[in-house]
Every structure is written in C-alpha cells, then in structure tokens.
Amino acid sequence: MALSRRQFIKGTGIIAISLACGGGTLTGCASKTAEDALSTTGSGAASTTVMGFNGEITVSLAVDATTGLISNVSIDGPFETPERGGRAVARLQEALNASGSLEVDTVSGATVTSQAVLDAAAWAKAEALGTAPNNPRLAPGTYTASAHGHYAGIPVTVTVVLSEDTIDAVRIEDGHLETALMARAAEEAFIPRLIEQQSIAVDGATGATMTSSAVRLAVEACLRESYAAAGVGPEAVVPWLAATAYDDAPAENLEADVVVVGLGGAGMAAALSAAERGLSVIALDKAAKYGGTTCVTSESLAVNPPRLSELHNGGATFIDGDALKADWLARTQGDAKKDLLDLFFTESGPTIDWLHFDHQWPFNPPNPGHADYATYDCCFTYEPYTLAGPKVEVAARIDGLMEQFNALGGEYLLETEATDLLYDTSSERIVGIRACSITGQEYEIAAKSVVLATGGFGENDRLMEQYMIDDFYPLSGTWHQYGMATNDGAMLEQAITLGAATFNPSVPPLSHLAGFPIDLTGFEVHEKDELSFFTGHTALWSEGDIPSSLCVAADGLAVTRQGVRFTNEEEFATHAAIKAGPEYYTIWSQTQLNEFKAQGLRYADPGPSMGYVGCQSTIPLGTPLPNLDAVMDAGIAAGYIFRADSIEELAETVAMEPSVLAQTVADYNGACTTGIDEAFGKNPDYLVAVDGGPYYAILGCAFYYTTAGGLDINERLQVLRNDGTPIQGLYAVGTDSMGVLMTEKDQYLDYGGAASGWAFTSGRLAGMLIAEDLA
C-alpha cells in the first residue's frame, strides 16, 4: 500500500477539498512593504516578495505618481537556477528599468520565474501608489486556461472552479501529451496541495515540475480572468503567490527487512524481487511518482533471454554473447570490471524473461542498438514501441509492477527523500535510513539492508563539479538534463562519506539527444498530414523549433566552446554532440538564414533529436519560414543565440578566441569550395559555406538522461570501501553503480538500452542476493 499522511477527495477527475472556514478571506499573503507611498514629491517606493520557481523573489521599485513610470527596479531571486531563472531575473530587471513600465515580455525558458517577477512588480507599483486592492473578491465561476509544460506542441489545459475567495477545484483536461506518469503526479500531488493551501506557489509535484508549472500558470491565468470579470486589476493574484508551510508532525519509526531508496527501473525491480522472496520492503522516492527515468525509456539490453529465445527464435540464441562481451571489454579499454560484466551478461536474459513472462512487461524481438558499432541483436524494445510522447503504455507496465509489489505486502512513500544512512559502528553495518517527506514528515526506518537506486548524481552540483572533469573527455561546464531532476546524488554522497569507494565516476553522462536548451513556444503550431513516429499522435511542427533544428543540421558548422570544429555534422544521429562536452555552438550566416526564410530547410535533420524536443517532429523541408527573424530575435532575447557583424566579433560575444573561430570558419569554407572535407569527411552535399554577415552562434547542448558512473560494488552488488571490503547491509544498483561496466575514456556504450538493462538486472539480482544474505 502507499503510505501517505494526507488523503484528498477525488471524483470524476476533479480534485476538491472542503474549506472549514467557508466564506472566510484569504489569509496567505505575499510579503510586501511600502516606503513613502505617494510622498510629497509625488513618488513612492515599495518592495514585494513572492514565490518564484525555486524560492522567494523580491522586487523593489520606485514609481512616479504623475507619469506612472517605474524606476530603480531591483530584483533578488537567489534561489532561481542561474542558467534559467537567474538569467530571467537579470534580463527582466534590465527590461523593466529600460521601459519604465510593466509592459515587458517574459523570458523564454523561464516562464514561471518571469511571471512571478512581473506579478511582484505589479503589486509593488500598486502598493507604492496606494492602489493595491484590499481583500479583492473573485467572480465565481468555472474558468479554463492553458500553458505549456514539457511538450511544446500542445499546451496543458486546466479547468478551475472558483468561489469569491477560494479555489474549489482544478482539473487537467485530456488532450495533452505530457508524459503520463508526470501528469498523474501533478494531478495527485500538486493540485491537492494547491487547493489545501489555497496558494499556487506550493511545491510542484517533485519529479514533474514542468507539468506542475503549466498547471500553476494556467490556474493563475484563470484567477486573472476572474478578477477582471470582478473589475479588479491583475495584481490581485499576488496574494495567491504566498509561501506556504505545513504543520509539524512527530517523527515516525518504521521497520522493514529492506529499504529501497529510489523507485526507477532498478528500485522497482529490487523492491519487487525482494518482496517475491518474502522479505518486508519499504521503498521511497523523492519524486511524486514512481518509475524514475524508466518512464521515458523505450528499450532494454539483454543477452539471449532463454524464454524469449524460445518464443521468437525457435530456442536458438540471438547473438554470440562471447563476441559481444569481447567487443564491450575492448571498447572499455580494460576499465570495466569483468566479473560484473559476466554477471550482467549471465543474468540480463533471465531478467527480461522475468519481466515479460512473469510481470506483464512485453518486449519485441531484439534488434541492434543505435551506435555505429551496435551490430548485435541485444536491444529489446518495449511492446508497443514508441520513442517519445505520453508513454501511456510504459506507465501501465510500471503501474503493473507496483501493483504486484503492493499485493506482496510492499509499502512505498512518494515525495519522501532519504537524508541519512544509519551506520552502526559496533556491527560496522548499515542499519537503516532517515527520510523526510515534502510536507516535513520525518521518518527513521530500521532495516537489515538498504538498496541505493537513486538514478545517479546529475542534479548534484558538488558531485558534477568534482567528477565531470576533462581528464579523458570534455565534461566540465553546464549540463542540460532530459530526465529526472530528482537524481541529486545525495545518498551517494552519504555513502562516500561513510567510506564507500567510487568506480569510474567520470564516465560521460548518458546522452542520446542534442538541441536548443529551451523551447520557444510563442509561435504558431502546425499539423502535418501524418502521425508522429515519436508520439503516435498527429505530427506537429513550429517555427519556434528552428533553433533546435539548426543545432543538429547536417549542413551546419558545429564547434566546441573554444571555437574548434569537432565532428562531421551528419553524425548528430549517433551521439556526436557529446564529443564537444555539455554545450557547443553551430555557426550560421545571414545568407544561409535568408535562404531558409524564403525556401525552407533543405536537408532532413539527422538522428532522433527533433523527435524529443519542441513539437517532437521535424520541420517540413522546402517550407518557407517567414517568422525566422522573429525566432532568432526570441533566441537572442533569451540569451541562447548570439549575433555579430563579423566572425571575430561573434567569437568575442561567446568568449572564444577570435583567431581560433575565424580559422575554423575559413577552413570549413575552404572545404565547401573544394567539396572535400579532409577533416571529417562530410558529404559534399552538406558542405555549405558560412559567408555573408551578420553571423549567428546558436547554443546547442548534449541533453543527458543521467550520469553513468558511481559507487564500486562486488558481484553481490554490495557497496565496497576503498580497501575493497564490503559495507555490510548496503547495495547499489542501476546508474548508482553502472560505472563498473563502463570507462571514463569514452562515451556510455550504446548497444541499445544498456542503462535500462543494467537497472532491471541489478535490481532483480539485489532482491535475490539480499534474500540469500538474510536467510
């Protein structure tokens, strides 16, 4: 069963809560102060604090009472992420001071932060002028609004029922293409909190922040519409942005044979496997959903599963497993642990059989993976096979695993973060964990064994700075995630503090995709007369996706952050972007862009990236792009596209050595003239000179799912100390220990679903081995 402190009334898709103080006024209010409002000089000043995306944002400003112009705008948003919310704070402060009014655009990629800033500024202005509404009333009714979540093609539409001073119900309407488990998390975690606390600034559903943000923005739009209908100004929404708090509750003590920290593929497999063997299991996840990154996966690696071989291949093996192992060991250059690779190869087949036949997770016959060296039929795609989109079928498979776990007596806690490993010095073993829920509920869980299945450390700034280094691969810099922001590595740090050893922690992160860091959603979305292979729905495209398309274009020029060309641009289909590290640039001339504007793109984008970003479909070739200039301007305003009159000036704008970029462009243009790319061998059809200013640098990024290195383990999946002895009671599975199969000297090996295969296999084995150890 699911352990929860709070139960909410649910009916026909609308989540509602009865307020005991019916008819009372809204008590939560944004923090605000006014100084000399409408002083004798005809001016005033005020400061307002609201909740932004990650924490409080304070806006201070002065107002001229005669002209209504604002000045001296200062915005403090210390908790916003520097590359998005922080960028928006800086740009909005500049824009508000320059314009003297509130009529400025939000910053693409940071809509929640932007809207919070503008809301706070509007209230501060009204407060300074003495016109802030006092206890404003809503116009009761049912309202509908939309905002973009994870998927840029179709926004999330929300219906809101409002009384004079309360939000009574919120419903996410059908028709969106948000990942199914993410949308459910917003429905079951974020919306109940919003209604209970009567604040749209409550914590979003952990692990579903983009969908939660869409709901927040849509509810705010409904509040604005309601206030407008009541004759009240839009600044009246600010009290709904108040910070919230939960009542203190006494700590709870729980006990189980096994605690599993993390409920992605590895954690679910570990929890279910242990429960199947009669062990009592408590599993927890920081996210508001189970499934982890597995909820957006499509395939899993396995070597010759016996029962599937019988089903699909007449009992014959699919591949020469020894040949694959030899190739794997050669590519990892002696750095992978052979005993763990042997274990993976031996047990991955039975694991896929276990999922397919015993737990209703069907797989197709195998195919080779995606890399050019992936020639072995060891990649088992899920049935049905979809690369992106809502992943409804994957959600159903995940639900099935958790239902079976429940039926075996397993318990789980969502939005509950493990904070400490409990180590008994006398017995020298792990004896449990401490944890805390999003509401502040603390737990101490005694356990005989703890399994770490936390999904790596991609969102841990300290570990990323420590391990994403350039010793073997260009890994330093800002990484952009396409995965779970809850993979924060906190428990890996705990284990390391207790003496756990790492193994290949600097393996390059797991990256398949490349593109523009943000979605530009303010442009018309068009339908294609076809279904999208990626989503299974009508294919959509938008000119807002032009930057992403130009980030992976075969006819472009891609350079590192130092201005050096690093790949044949045709190879963006096969993980080329990460060769440059976390970020790179593509360089374009106005001449090229003018051609695209008049005649459209000429070549199909290589690889799957456009199926995952933006509208999740390619821009039709040969289609004129009349809004291209506006798209580029939007990217420049957002801080991810740069323009200059010369290549040298462009280099200075993006902190490159001008002579280096100038030489790179000259060499590339020379190859375009001769039709021979001696550096990388690109097809001459794609060699198009970068000539005719102004010039543009578009920031591209190698999106990553998760890190691929972690803790050292032995064949029983026990975490090892630096001296090679096991830490009794502590196990690590999935990407928390996948470094034992990899090397730091090259990319994550993509034979097709290796991370998923290791997650399921190591998780299943952990449950089995713990049962043996506790017998």
Automatic annotation (TrEMBL):
Catalyzed reactions: dihydrourocanate + A = urocanate + AH2
Short name of any one Pfam family annotated for the protein: FMN_bind
Domain of life: Bacteria
Family matches, as PROSITE patterns: PROKAR_LIPOPROTEIN, TAT
Keyword Flavoprotein belongs to the record: yes
GO cellular component, one term: membrane
Database matches in SMART domains: FMN_bind
Example of a GO MF term: steroid dehydrogenase activity, acting on the CH-CH group of donors
Family: Belongs to the FAD-dependent oxidoreductase 2 family. FRD/SDH subfamily.
PANTHER family: FAD-DEPENDENT OXIDOREDUCTASE 2 FAD BINDING DOMAIN-CONTAINING PROTEIN, FUMARATE REDUCTASE
Protein's name according to its UniProt entry: Urocanate reductase
The species this protein was found in: Adlercreutzia muris
